Amino acid sequence: MTESTAAKFLDRETPPHISTLIILSALPALSMTLFLPSLPNMTEYFQTDYRVMQLSVATYLFVNAVLQVIVGPISDFYGRRVVVLWGAVLFLIASLGCMLAPNVELFLFFRMSQAVIVTGMVLSRAIVRDLYPANEAASMIGYVTMGMAVAPMLGPMIGGFLDEIFGWKASFSLFLIIGGLTLIISYLDLGETLPARKKNIWSQFREYPELFRSHRFWGYCFVAAFSSGVFFAYLGGAPFVGSEIFGLSPGILGFYFGLTAFGYMSGNFLSGRLSVRLGINKMIIIGCFITLIGPTGPILATYAGSTHPLSFFGFAVLMGIGNGFIMPNATAGMLSVRPHLAGTAAGIGGAIMIGIGSGLSALAGSLLTKESGPYPLYYIMLFCVIMGLISGWYVVIRSRTNPIN
Question: What is the sign, positive or negative, of the torsion defined by CA atoms of 227, 233, 236, 242?
């Protein structure tokens, strides 16, 4: 299978259709947030403490990060198709287990097991890199990751609606339906994209230090990690800033979050159109400078005495656009340093992003108080942007002086 072959939907003899890759990347993102409005009802159902039910979020993210490290290397040896299909099958089993769990312990076990669907998120990017050169891969990844932006924003709204009408198990029923459709579509549309490998799996493992020694790989990783850290910190702190600082109702707050998601989608769309023309490194630097407006604008506006929500959320739209420029191009960069280890690179990069991002989200949430105002969030976001920009410049300089490593 080559990139020159035209993609035909539900024909695995041709490259996978873009809609299949979007579904593979969106379902893992949706599974993070869909059931969140049901946590209070689930707490009552299992007769436990709310903090115990919140472990369903923390443990899921932890297993998600661990699996990203494992999934990539496995797919680099056994192939993308078989790993994606098995991931979807295990996700269906785990979702059914969540619905039927008689106690909270079994529920948490199956909830952690649902993280196996991260195979779709990791390998949708690796599949793109199998098929396209670096700049074109960045363009395609930009389109693919739009689903990752929309799904977590829409998830709580859909989950809350289902919970009010049918109860908390309805969200996991929806996981079964979407997971089943994902399995069927992947089986029919996703052929193997990994070039044939003749080495055994131990030879595969011995190649990994080659990736780890690459300065550009780590540079791209940290660009992506700190840029996603801006977004995760925003997700962790913006609800407090919106409700406690600006006094927004949940409905209005959700609207402003939607604006940020629209910004990210717009950035991804523009990245899809511009990356081939400008190149991944230039797109990363442009994205960093756009993202820089996200925290600096609110800092200046707050010092100037502005009290309107748009003094924060309006600039957050630009942060979303900047991230939409950075993430697909940084991802394409880390996968392109050693193309034969694209799956490994996707897994390690994803794990680093989740790890740093979830930590920054928790940090932002813990530092914000009415006395502190919004400043801790602003400064965390500013720190992340600066570190991302430094990492981006390092990659640019390294690409000029030592393009091989």
Answer: negative
